[in-house]
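Bench notes, afternoon.
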Amino acid sequence: MTIDTGRRAFVASLGTLAAAWPLTVRAQPAQRIRHVGVLTPYNEQDTAARDDADAFIQQFKRLGWKVGQNLDLQYRAAGTKAEQLRSAAAELVGLKPEVILVMGSAALKALQATTDSIPIVFVGVTDPVYQGFVANRTHPGGNVTGFTVFEFSLGATWVQLLAEVSPGLHHFAVVYHRETTPGGWMPLIQSAAARLKLEVNEAPVLDDTEIDNVIAVLKTTSGGGLVVLPSTFTLAHRQRIIDFAARYRLPAIYWDNRFVNDGGLMSYSYNLYEQVRQGVVYVDRILKGEKAGDLPVLDTTKFNFVINLKTAKAVGLAIPGSLLGRADELVE
């Protein structure tokens, strides 16, 4: 499937949203059309892409931007593979948008390798200084700025929550994408595990088979659990991870509440929609004359703790009252 074909399929699937978001924009001579690109690392069929699309289109509307009147929005949902992201990034840059909004580290990497002049606003990126995307958070300079989603120290929080929900926990696997997950997660996770006297097993994965292998190892021993680290890969493959964890009654904690909505046990995660809204605000400011390099990289400040009570019952866990009281949402 070509990117153009995939994009048409994706936008068609948005239903009523598509009517407000045409692929071909007819400029109205009374207003100046501003040109914005969006690059995401999801497949068109993934509900994550639809969630993101709805969030940012609504924020553009709130800020006074109307597709077809004063805004031309070019969207690419390219998938997680590096070659697809590079191709989509090159295509977007070739359209010469005034700003590009990008989601996730893998998509940002592809885009940053393609242009050093078009302003880029990122969301959903962990520690952009560590990953080399910006030199300085306060004054990033260059053409890139945006919003971070996680500090590596959050890994210790995930381990603590997993231990609290599963008193019989003795060891856990840390599932992450081998090619795109930053290395800064493991030292703090290992330190937290040591304090709790838990064994840590790193589980880098690249495909469904490797995901299956991780679960197969855990199911053969008692007292196991899962910590799933942030990446577009793990989100795109979330149903496979969730289903295997449920099948073998493994407690698991995830980095995005969509895992929990789809049947995962629990998540402690940033507020996706707030991130997207913040990113669109930066795009708006750049369109109005500010420079990307002068806008500071900002942290996520709001996190949600979500527990799926039905899943807890299915895996044989009684959620402690202390955790129920701290949850922002209970899925039943």
